Amino acid sequence: MSSPLMHIESFLEALTNCDKDGRIVVNKQGLLSQSSLKFLLLNPAVHFSSIVQQARSIIVAGGTMQPISEFTDQLFHSAGVSPSRVALYSCGHVIPADHILPLAIATGPSGQQMDFTYQFRDSPSLLDELGRIFINICNVTPGGIVCFFPSYDYESQVYNHWEKTGFLNRLSNKKKVFREPRKSGGVEQILSDYAACIKRCKTWTSSSSQTGAILLCVVGAKMSEGINFSDDLGRCVVMVGLPYPNLKSPELKEKMDYLNANYPKDIEGRQPGQVHYENLCMKAVNQSIGRAIRHRGDYATILLVDRRYNRTNVVSKLPNWISEHLQKPDKFGVALSCISKFFSMKKDLPT
Question: CA angle, corner 38, sides to 35 and 40, nearest 5?
Answer without folding.
Answer: 150
